[in-house]
Amino acid sequence: MTRPPSAAQRRVIDAADPVSGRLRGTQPQLAALVRQGLAFRHPRPPHDHFLTPAGHRLRAGDTPERERTGTAAPAEEDRVFAARVGGEESAADGPARAREVHSAWQGLLELRRMTNRDGATDRPCDWERTHLVRAAALALEASGQPPEGPATAGYRVRATPQPEAVAVYAPAGEPLRACAAALERAGWQTGEYTEPRTRIRHLLASPRRV
Fold first, then answer.
1. Would you say 189 and 208 are in contact if contact means Cβ atoms under 8 Å apart?
2. pLDDT at 80
3. Would the CA dihedral through 33, 37, 136, 179 be positive or negative?
4. 205 vs 78, which has greater pLDDT?
5. Main-chain phi, psi angles of 10, to 5 degrees
6. Strand 188-194 versus strand 166-169 pairing type
7. Mapping DSSP to helix (H, G, I), strand (E, B) and coil, where does residue 28 land?
8. Global pTM?
9. Is the pLDDT of residue 206 over 90?
10. I want to staple 175 with a disulfide (CB 3.0 to 4.6 A). Which of 1, 164, 170, 208 is the partner?
11. Sign (positive/negative) of CA torsion 63, 66, 71, 74?
């Protein structure tokens, strides 16, 4: 369990740069936010601190009521954002989810800017290459593509035996092409394939390097 930020730490979060998430505060305050998963310390000089996606969500107010009021420590599933990979049995929708996805995507773009050597935000970073399914799912959900659900047809992102490649399934035709376009806008390269046995069309998607 992680304790909610103190009042002083919350003021540091609220005062973060609205675009970059850059933080100003005392070293103990910043170190505490790093331990809580709300900030990260940039590895290159001057080693500034920035909000993580969880920190951006907290700043935007997209947190459970008990976390905002401090009445109880938040459960792990409430604190950690999870992009929808498709096939979830139940998931909340609505404006709050849309804000959460938007905040997570903006946080990921900032992570690209801070960790890609040239500061590029138009192609994936190392984190995405080590979390392929989650990264591709976030790119799709942030673009507005619907994930597959109990009563809805949409995308599914699944791991593959190939290094740096995920499989994306969606209804054939325009939905599958829309997923390909969304991933390509997010810096992925895609190709459409047919499974030999099932004849099901799907995408293979990989993070673009250049």
1. yes
2. 52
3. negative
4. 205
5. -65, -35
6. unpaired
7. helix
8. 0.67
9. yes
10. 170
11. negative
Peptide linkage before 74 cis (omega within 30 of 0)? no
For the chain, percent of residues with pLDDT exceeding 70? 87
Angle at the Cα of 141 from the Cα atoms of 74 and 20, rounded to 5 degrees: 70
Please report which confidence band the pLDDT of residue 75 belongs to, taking 50, 70 and 90 as the band edges: very low
8 Å CB contact between 36 and 28: no
User: pLDDT (tens digit, 9 = 90+) per residue, 89-129?
Assistant: 877 778 888 888 888 898 889 889 888 889 899 999 988 99
Q: At 165, list the tokens.
A: 């490649």
DSSP H or E run through 192: strand 188-194
**What is the β-pairing status of strands 39-41 and 49-51?**
antiparallel
At which residue do the structure tokens 């799912």 appear? 137
Name 193's bridge partners. Answer: 202
Instruction: State the sign of the Cα–Cα–Cα–Cα dihedral 47, 112, 35, 96.
Output: positive
Query: What is the secondary structure of 153-191 as a DSSP string?
Result: --BEEEE-SSTT-EEEE--TTHHHHHHHHHHHHTTEEEE
Helix (H, G, I), strand (E, B) or coil at 207: strand
Q: How many residues does the chain have?
A: 210
Query: How would DSSP label each residue in 100-144?
Result: HHHHHHHHHHHHHHHHSTT--SSS--HHHHHSHHHHHHHHHHHTT
At position 174, the amino acid (one-letter code) is E
